[in-house]
Amino acid sequence: LKDYFLPPHYLKMDIEKVVPEIERTSHDQYGRATLQQLKELAQHSIGIPVEDVHEISISITIQSWILSIELLQQQMDQLMSQMIYLTQQMPYFKILTSLKGISDKTAAFFIAETRDLSQFDHYKKLEKFAGLNLKQSQSGQYVGRRRISHIGNHRLRWVLYKMTEETARYVPEVRMKFLRRQIKQRIYRKNVVASSTTLLKLIVAMVKKNKVYEPTKENIKAVEILEIKYDEIKSAKRRKKAS
Predict the structure, then answer these.
(1) Nearest CA-CA partner of 1 in 48, 50, 65
(2) Backbone dihedral region of 210: left (phi > 0), alpha (psi from -120 to 50 degrees) or beta?
(3) What is the DSSP string of 168-217?
(4) pTM for this structure?
(5) Tens digits of residue pLDDT in 111-140
(6) Dihedral sign, Cα of residue 83, residue 208, residue 194, residue 173
(7) Nearest one of 53, 1, 23 to 10, comparing CA atoms
(8) Between helices 188-209 and 123-130, what is the axis angle to 10°?
(9) What pLDDT sits at residue 143?
């Protein structure tokens, strides 16, 4: 954006030079194809006609805006570093990060939102605090479906989702819950949220025993069996779609 904000800029753009930068800033979501498309579109776009002086003014405004964003990002990075440093002094940090998939950042966020994990002697208390407990609407003979209440700490709910999403790839107990639900019905987000209960049970149990996570051979074997079954279901669906 700093260098390319008008159609003529895209017409003169050296795609090969810009590809590494756009891949880095977009985390590989965009690349050469995107730049090529922008360059082709610029050939047919009149854009906003501006004089040279006006273009310089726009460029200065954009650069000032980008510098403000970069400064804010630096401040956020410093704050995050300090938060991680402070939470590392707590016994819960080592317990949480022993679960593969939970980074220093998400562990720090989780501890910051829960404050003292020792006060949650049951996983359902954490579940309710995050607003992930189930509620059911009833009126007379009508009984509605059970739904997540969403009445709780929305920041903790977001952190827990990210933690579950990552641990569902590596931690056998969470992975098993996720795979069983995926085998039954492939609804990714819903199944990640449902698997958060297993993660909370695991965290509360480890905090009570003050022990880091260690997977058991039985759970690893159980996951391998489920992985084979899940791969078979995915392959069957791909063949059906292809036919």
Answers:
(1) 65
(2) left
(3) HHH-HHHHHHHHHHHHH---HHHHHHHHHHHHHHHHHHHHHHT------H
(4) 0.78
(5) 999 989 989 999 999 999 999 887 655 666
(6) positive
(7) 1
(8) 130
(9) 58
Nearest to 114 by CA among 139, 101, 95: 95
DSSP state of 220: H
Compute the distance between CA of residue 6 and CA of residue 25 in angstroms, rounded to an integer.
20
Over residues 67-97, the pLDDT tens digits come to 999 999 999 999 999 999 999 999 999 999 9
Q: Is residue 146 scored above 70 in pLDDT?
A: no
Query: Mean pLDDT, the chain, as a whole number?
Result: 90
Q: Token pair for residue 207?
A: 């905090």
Q: How far is CA 84 from the centre of its chain?
A: 18
CA atoms within 13 A on the CB side of 15: 12
